[in-house]
Amino acid sequence: MSIKKRRKLRNQDPYLEREKARYKNPLPSREYILKILKELGVPTRESDLLNLLGIRSTEAENFSRRLAAMIREGQIFRNRKDDICVMEKLDLIKGTVQGHADGFGFLIPDDDSVDLFLSAREMHKVLHGDRVLAREAGVDKRGRREAAIVEVLEHVNKQVVGRLYAEHGILRVVAENRRISQDILIPGDCALNAEAGQVVTVEIVQQPSKHAQPIGRVVAVLGHYTDPEMEIGIALRKYDLPYVFPEAVEQLADGLPSSVQQRSHSERRDIRSLPLVTIDGETARDFDDAVYCEKDADGYTLYVAIADVSQYVNPGDAFDQEALKRGNSVYFPQRVIPMLPEVLSNGLCSLNPNRNRLCMVCEIRFDKHGERLDYVFYPALMRSHARLTYTLVASLLSAPADGEQAAKYRKLMPHLQTLNQLFKVLLKSRQKRGAIEFETTETQMFFNTQGKIERIEPVQRNDAHRLIEEFMLAANVCAAEFLQKHRHSVLFRNHERPAADKIEALRDFLKEFGVQLGGRKKPKAGDYAKTIKKIKHRADAHLLQTVMLRSLPQAQYSPENCGHFGLAYDAYTHFTSPIRRYPDLLTHRAIKAILRGENYQPDNWHELGRHCSATERRADEATRDVETWLKCFFMKDKIGECFNGIISSVTGFGLFVALDDFYVEGLVHVSELPSDYFHFDAVRHCLLGERSGMQYRIGDPIRVKLVRVDLETSKIDLVLAKTEKNKQLKATKKHTKSVKPIKSKKKNKHKISI
Question: Which pLDDT band holds residue 727 (cuts at 50, 70, 90)?
Fold first, then answer.
């Protein structure tokens, strides 16, 4: 083919103009390369592709990089002959490796198809989180579909945090992330003088392969397990949480003014005269939202003012890039890793009292019965009239009108009472709507001067908590409807209805206790709410509610609206916390774009949804790890003591027991149960003794003894207290005689998060 014809072929690229806009010397687009390869219909050498597309020698290196990027993305693949193949033409599966502490793993396909089992031999080639291409390799002895790894697309673990061990002169690091089951070998001259037993950060210099373990070098010595805040330092590195703001962010922050500038609010509505107040927890430092309500003869007007973070964080700037990377703030006990630098999160964007602040307002009109009549969004200038706490507001609302405390807040009392009146009205509307309300116990940790737990106490949610929650829900729903009305993309907060098999398993379980769940094959949130109300005062309410909660899926972010099952909303998004959640910031940008008659379009809404859902899960797992370790440290001097508790979870390998006095969870291994063969019933969430008929079930009270605390693995081991064995045997033997076996089904371990 002549040079002229090759150039003509290249100019037929439908994405040529886009490439010209991005690059000074544009290359053929990825889409066009794929199209050409598909038309060729056979694996193609890179040299032939270069010739076909008229790639000059000066462009060859950049073109090879583009092909390499396409390989990493799993769009194309090089076979053993080094020919380029289109992935769609091959029977290969692209996905992510999920490791298990016992050495095996699973391939999680990108197309959401069924997970495939990876044997320990296959896992020897990779680490947890790696991106791979694999082929289906049959079925194992247990009937699981197996996969064989063909190609590693990306080794994602560049650094790993773990504990250093020295045995027979060989140094190795055991990763804190137990899903990384391979030890990392450390050459003697790469230990950075770290001592055995210390926690270190290791840079992997040689990734694992079929015939070799990973090799690394120590790049940082963090210290010993019991050092102050070590548990947080480990979690930050284990979950790859960004915790240091890059220099570009610091430079941008240094250029911000110390107060709101006149030019920032010249075109905004001035609502500084409205007595807006913030209501948060005692330890809160960043204040996203403020509220105020007016009442007249026809109903209520609610003002929900939210910090206008989008005024200071522009698409693509250093603030935005780092906020996207973090996804959300992470709240550890005694420490916060903010999404935004402090000058914004605790300064310009925080609705601190008696300070001018920029905000986005959702003004909502309700009738006397709590039915929403109308709403409007607009940018404004506000001034918070007080920083109040949940405890204070609850106390003020329940105190006598002529009391000393009410007198101190005399000017605000009428406004708080109006807010409370609207809350009571909306609460009735919520119940009518059928939103699910699970009764759960939240706890608060109190720390000593060494940063370790001194005591753990339950937190009582009062009406002030629920008041703010109800108003935030109302604003979020308005935001979702506003964006839908204008056909503008956004990240919806989706909570899908439970899967059919989960519903069936739940019905089978509830039936054993004489409880019915309405709604037939497709129950609504209201059906769940009615059942929860019916069982509220039963002795086994904890058990029934726990199983109902576990039947629900996890909430996710997506540009495709699926509604929010738990809250009983047709459409729901996050608008009220842009200081600490990136999806809320995106919602603000979209709303402001509509108000300007424009359209806000980031690169890829679907990818943003997946990323924000992942960073949310990452934060949850990291904080859970830290809290679990702190609780282990708290319990280590109580070994040998006996405690009352409740069985909080049942598995095939034992019982998890939540201790009544400390809100700490430990495991009674199945081998510690009375001598018998115990079988796990996943539907009834119990372990059942084959010979004795003994039964251990979620929600059952139990007395246990603490026998071991392992700080390295954050595990608490319990055994039954001596008096417990005969007590349980006598109590359950008679009960289980009439129990009929039910086919076991997979248990959902997700929790709901709105």
Answer: low
